Amino acid sequence: MTPPERSGTPSSEVITSAANPTIALVRSLARRDRRADEGAFVVEGRRAVHDALQSGAVPRLLLVRQGEPESWRDLAPSAPVPTRVVERRLFDRLSDVQAPQGILAVFPFPRLAPDPDDPAPLALVLDRLRDPGNLGTLLRSATGAGVNAVYLSPETVDPWNPKVVRAGMGAHFRVPLIPLDPGALEELRRRLPRRVVARAGASRPYDAADWTGAAALVIGGEAEGVGPELEAWGTEEVGIPLAHGVESLNAAVAGAVILFEAARQRRLARAEDPI
């Protein structure tokens, strides 16, 4: 990627052509292969960009819609960022939301790693999750519940998909996102003695499990659930008791319910632990 000249304020030149290299770059990042090649993704909207900057991330590029340069000035990034003004209609065509907020940024993939000193890490493992909104919501819940890292199977939707990023509300900059390959599976097997698979038909309630130690929670896809490999990898199953006639919960809702039960137990355990 070849960014424009770095500056603390937007360039006075307004981009008006769809053929402009900056516009072509942003449009290309709608594709998973281009995001992987560039090692970058788009964050859109004032709050989302602000949250990313608050985490300490520095964008490679920031675009503001013509007539709204003030959206850039008070975000206060920690370093100079290449900033361009884009003609209003052209900017709006870059967006995949109905009411664009007039600001978007291209960020490099965050390079986060799990805390190696966490004595009781809680990992979230996602398998064959296909819905971007569900994945983004789960990432947000994982961040709020203090998850050490999120592991994503190859069959799970790309976490850098714009819809996932929008639903994640800044989670991408605060929790490590790690591909679930054979090496990661083996490492988790060694580190996490309890690997709990969430399944609708499980007889053991989720709140009867002990979540205070090192553990992984495995959540499967909306239609197919957890695949055979991860079912065999797990050491136990839990479910969420539901009212009569209700078959199951949305994957994102189920994951959030269990994650915050784990967070509750861990919070109580810390309060009771003498220091």
Helix content: 25-40%
Structural class: alpha/beta
Order of helices and strands: EHHEHEHEHEEHEHEHEEHEH
CA radius of gyration is 21 Å
What best-fitting shape do the alpha-carbon axes yield?
elongated
Largest sheet: 6 strands, parallel
The chain-level mean pLDDT equals 90
Poorly predicted ranges (pLDDT <50, ≥5 residues)?
1-7
Number of helices: 10
Strand content: 15-25%
Strand order of the largest sheet: 8-7-6-10-9-11
Q: Span from first to last CA?
A: 51 Å
| Number of strand segments | 11
Keywords:
275 residues, alpha/beta, 5-stranded mixed sheet, disordered N terminus
Molecular structure report:
Strand 3 (61-65), helix 4 and strand 4 (83-86) form a beta-alpha-beta unit. Residues 1-7 have low confidence and may be disordered. This protein has helices at residues 21-28, 32-38, 46-54, 70-73, 88-94, 132-144, 162-168, 182-191, 228-233, 251-272, and strands spanning 14-15, 40-44, 61-65, 83-86, 103-108, 122-127, 149-152, 177-179, 194-198, 215-220, 236-238. The protein has 10 helices and 11 strands. The strands form 2 sheets. It has a 6-stranded parallel beta sheet with strand order 8-7-6-10-9-11, with helices on both faces. It is elongated.
